[in-house]
Fold this protein.
Amino acid sequence: MWDYTDKVKEHFFNPKNSGVLEGADGVGDVGAISCGDALRLMIKVDKETDVITHAKFQTFGCGSAIASSSALTEMIIGKTIDEAMNITNQDIADFLGGLPPEKMHCSVMGYEALRAAVANYKGEEWADDHEEGALVCKCFGVDEGMIERAIRGNHLTTVEQITHYTKAGGGCSTCAEAIEDVLTKTNKLMVEEGVLAASEAFDPTNAIRRSAKPNQPKVSPLAPTTNHGGAPAKLTTLQKIKLIEQAIEEIRPFLQADGGDCQLVDVEGETVYVQLSGSCVGCQMASVTLNGVQEKLVEKLGFLVRVVPVKNH
Amino acid sequence: MRPVYLDNNATTRVDPEVVQAMLPFFTEQFGNASSMHAFGAAVGDAMRTARKQVQELIGAEFDHEIIFTSGGTESDNSAILSALETQVGRDEIITTMVEHPGILSLCDHLAKTRGITVHKIGVDSMGRLDIEAYRKALGPKTAIVSMMWANNETGTLFPVDLLAELAHEAGALFHTDAVQAVGKIAIDIKSTEIDMLSLSGHKLHAPKGIGALYVRKGVRFRPMIRGGHQERGRRAGTENVPAVIGLGKASELALKHMADEQTRVKALRDRLEKGLLQQVGNSFVTGDPTNRLPNTCNIAFEYIEGEAILLLLNKAGIAASSGSACTSGSLEPSHVLRAMKVPYTAAHGAIRFSFCRDNGEADVDQVLEAVPAIIAKLRELSPFWQGADKAPAVFNPTFA
C-alpha cells in the first residue's frame, strides 16, 4: 500500500476541476494508455491579461496521477501563463504534501501537461522530449539513454555516481543491477573509443570496487600517521571537522544542482548535525540525501558517524 | 464499515485452530527435534504428524517426500537448482510466460549468469498453455520443466498431468508451482508423474514463512541450503517447528473444507462475477472459464486504472488486488494479462477478487453495491471514456 498524504487522498477522493472544459483555449495531452497513465489538461486564458481563468483535467491513472492533476489545476487557476510556467513538478508534489518516490513521475506528468497545453494555446508544436527508451529506474523515470548521456558527459564509473547525477537507483534501488549493465556497456565503449582509461572503467567482475570509489583512498591522507599498534588513528576534533567540511563541500554541487544545499552545524562525538536547505527541505528524497552525506563522511573519516538533520528555524 | 477481505490469493488469515495448535510449541514444547532428550522427542513426534497431514493433503505416497521450506519461493528455487545439478549434460529449462516471479526471476538470472537456455511457453487469450510450442521446446537438453498448477492472477489451471508425461518422454524432470492450487482443489500427486511440487502455508490459512517442497521418492535431489542433516539432508537449518505444526494443522483443515471450496465458495465467486458483468459495461472476466480455481475472479474494467479502483474499493472497506500483489511495486501491467494479449486499455484496469472459506453472501452483496459507482466515477475522470454507448469493447472473449 502506498503511503499517500492526506492531501493526496483528498485530491483523489474529491478531485477538483475534473471533466471536459468546453471551449478550451489550450489542450495538452501527455502520457499514453499503454504506460498506465495519461492526462489531458484543458485551459481557458484571458487574452488581455494572459491569466488562466479556467482549468480542467481528465486523467487515466493511479491515485497519485489523479491527485497530481487535480492539484495542478488548483495551482494554475488565477495565474498568468508566465507565472504558471514557473511551477515545477516538485511544486506539485509539495502542494500535495509529498508523493512516494515511486510516484514522482505523476507530478512530472502534470508539469508536462501544462507545457503541452500552453504550447497548444500559443499555437506552438510541443514535442514530448521523453524518449521511448526502456525505463531503467522506475522510481524517477530514468531511461537508458539518460544514464548513458550522464556516464559519457561526466566520465562516471560507479553506480553511486550515476545515482547522484541522474537519481536513477536512488529510490527503491531494485534497478541496481540494470544500472550496472548500462554502466558496464557504456564504459566498455568509452574505453574502445579511447575516451576512458581501461583501468578506470567499471569492472563488473570486481565485487569490491563496485561500491567503492576508484582511485580514492578509504581514509583521507589528512588522517594523522601516528598510528599505534595498527588501531584506527584517533582524529582530533579539529581534524575531524576539517574532514567533514571537506566531504560536505564535495557533495554540495550535487545538491545545489537540484536547488538544495547542506551545511555543517555541529559535531558531537560520532554524531554530525547538518542543516538541509533549499529544495532539500520537505523533499521526499531528503533521507536518501542524508544517507549519501553519511556515506561520504564515513568514507572520509574511516569510521562510522551518524548524520542527523537539524530543523530549520 | 464492515471489512470485506477478498484477497486470499495474496495471503489468508491464519485459522484460529492453527494458532491454537502452534502455541504450545513456543513456550512448552520448545525443544530442538534433533536433540537426544525428551524435549526433542516430543517435537519430533509432532513434526511427523504435521508431515503426514501435508502428505494427505496432496496425496503423496510417502511422508518423507515432503520437505519443509520457508515457503513457495524457496521451494521453487530449490527444485530448479537441484534439477540443473542432477541432470548432468542438460542445461535447458522450460517454463511459461505466466509463472510467478519465484520461477521467472530465477530463470532470467540463470540465463544471464550460467548461460542456461530458458524457453518460456506462451498462452492464448484465455490463459491456456500452447501445448504444441511446449512439445517443440522439449528435447535431450531439457533438464527440468516448471509449470504452475493454477495461475495466481486468473486462477487458470494447467493440465499438469499431461505436461508431466510429456516432460518424462523427453527425459526431463517436471516441477509444478502449486502454491495457488494446494488447498483449493483436490490433488492426488501419486497418481501423476509430477516429480516436484511447491506449496506455501500462508495461502491456506497457515502462517507466512513456511512451505514445502514435494520430491517424489527416487528423484535425485541436491539441497540448495547446506548445513545440518535436517529434512534428511535436503534442507539444512533448524526447523521452524511452530510453523511446521501450523502447516500440518492447516493442511488437515483444508482437506476438511475442500468440498465447501468447490461448492459454496465457488457459488459466491460465480454470483459476484455474474453480478459485476451485468451491472458494469465494458468489463470482462479473464482466464479459462471452464478450467479455473473455484475461488478466483479476475475481471478487467476497460478505460480505467487498477490502483485507483483499489483505493476506492479500500475506502468502501473492500480488499482486492490489481494483477499480482508481488508486482505492485512495478508500473508495468501484469505480465500474465500481457501474455494473454489483453490490451493495455483493459490490462491496467484488471481487478482480482479471491475468496476463501471465511467469506459469505454479505461480502458479495457489499462488493456488488460498491463497484458500479466506483467504476462510473473513474470512467468520468478518464480521457479515454466516451460514454457507455460510444465506447467500443476492445476485447471481448466469449464468456458465459
User: Anything to note?
Assistant: Strands of chain A lie at 26-32, 37-45, 52-60, 135-137, 142-143, 260-268, 271-278, 306-309. DSSP finds ten helices and eight strands in chain A. The longest helix of chain A spans residues 237-257. Residues 228-309 of chain A form a domain with the GMP Synthetase; Chain A, domain 3 fold (CATH 3.30.300.130).
